[in-house]
């Protein structure tokens, strides 16, 4: 039979899509909210035709056909409008008449999402729910040989250092001689990783900044947040709240014109400057802000035209070697603030992290190293980068820490780990594991979006449309109709909730380990894992 | 948890006194080992204050090896106490060949050495001997330093002291530190017994150091050959003290600021705030996390006691001018100095360092909130 639609090589049926929309005709009141809320326009209002047989009573007349029409919603099968599974339709439906269901088999959409010869680009995270961090257990529990501490009552000091810490001999000598000592910040070990003003909506950014300020000024937790690449709003640059902010400079230098111009008017120094060389979600790539999100405000802050895609180069174009990248860039950034601000690089986890670390260790002013593992999230990247590139964070951070131990600089160059921290919801456990593997602190972005703003994404390709500015929750959208869904006050409150509960959980981990006066950085004797090879690789206990 | 006792007295006293103090604290240790540190020696060693004294346990073969090695280095014996343990050993005490305490004359060329170099070379000799002994199992060397004797053995403290006949004139001292061991391992390595000694610095601890691994890693990476061993989680306390006094040139008053720094709130308007903040940052790896009470002795023969921040381990200082004792329990103090004014007993809290200097006239209490010696922060 001839099909009544044209079948082309990229014609897909609903079954071929990763998400199928289950719609219940009997429950639906045809209010249309689902179609209105759908960020992908995956739903269309439809007219259905139904044949009804009407058998008369008796044998005098033969049965008749009648055709009825009724209204409903239909899932589009165009790859551009494929359902992303965000579930907004269900969220707004008054009757639970609709919801996305994940396909029971591998979808065929993946073969067709390269329209125009452009491979798939998306936001979100690497689509792999598993990870080593969740398998690590804390096996050294104080009980009798040393009494356990009371997580609820004891006095805990859970801060960490960001900045180049000189060896004690050198520090004391410089103090005596009144010499220059690199700046060091005492911060909370959970840093909000770089999510730019541009990647995030204005309401989300405002909410995070308010939450961070509240945590610092009301709760007394020295939480800091990285701006990501894309600059910083002018008012924040000139406010006293800048001290809670790590300014990030990436290879596109977006927003840095504004920052440099604001320098003379800054009331306080920023917490630190982070030079982004790489990101765990798209190692080897620069930043990417797609044109959908470059509106008037973003264009103004970044100093670019409106409506154009903003890819950062994969590397800082003025540097051609690691010596320059490490020495020159760190020095010039330090100099800009009179050597009062710690400057450190952020790289993607890679098998060459050790080389970077070695160079930093020899640089007397490098303030640390942030390493972002393969499980990091992003606002926009090529799918292949996100899913297939990168290095897991656990072994990378461990190698780097043990490298520092070998050269005796483990207190001097703090390491910050990111990429998949808390991706299955176990933020405190993952963070504690990384700290005990050797990180001075951890960075997280995805978890913050999920906890503070209800990001719907998952590690199984749900949603992941941060790149096109249609975030169903308004977290990563620059469209006022979407970002007004997000109340910044509530984001701030959720952020505070998140940090307070993280703090309690972290104490619940370190207290039974008998630690309270210093963060258990490198306390690898407390860790165990039920995989022999992983245990060997990480130099921790093998436990089954 | 181990029990500790240390005493400093104008009148030389016998190790038996310390063993008796440990005995009254018997419920706090399982008698699985004892460690003794004697300094400010009297008797024959009184006149040999500058001569390095080697103390250790040797097999007959080990002793010959030692003699050959020391002779090759140019050391000649000035005086020795050899304890040949009577047979049979009491239950729980191993049978050894020889406990040796031997004072040496320096090799000729050593006389030209600076004090610093001499200290380093003495430590190197001890480490070399220890290494030789560990290879063949015939030498256990505890210390090699002027005016210092160390004896460690497995077994109940009082039994060991009586069995070895340590209550002898040659071993009378004015400073004695002793530990009754509560063994938490299956096999006891004598190097894991307190007190721990390095270049005249000696500490012992009750409790467990939960920050052991990072501190050990940090100290080991300092490149100083003496920072080794670590058969016990508490050995790091002696090395931190050594590091802060020898390498950083800090006075004892700063030791507590290294191992348990003040928080920002506590620092408040401390006169040395800027210095202390830098010290806390730069020595962050050396922060101990307890629970521990540390008792120690410096090369100048002053004794001290500090607590970690949690103050979960007992410790008390008391006595009278001329004689003060540090004990992990009050009953230990009562057993040895019953006639002291008990109202002057002091139990250091989490900010205190209790110090009795070599003049033994008072217990000096140094609180972390007080200002540090001026010279330090100049």
From TrEMBL, chain B:
Transmembrane segments: none annotated. The lineage of its organism: Bacteria, Pseudomonadati, Thermodesulfobacteriota, Desulfobacteria, Desulfobacterales. This is Glutamate synthase (NADPH). Residues 2-357 form the Glutamine amidotransferase type-2 domain.
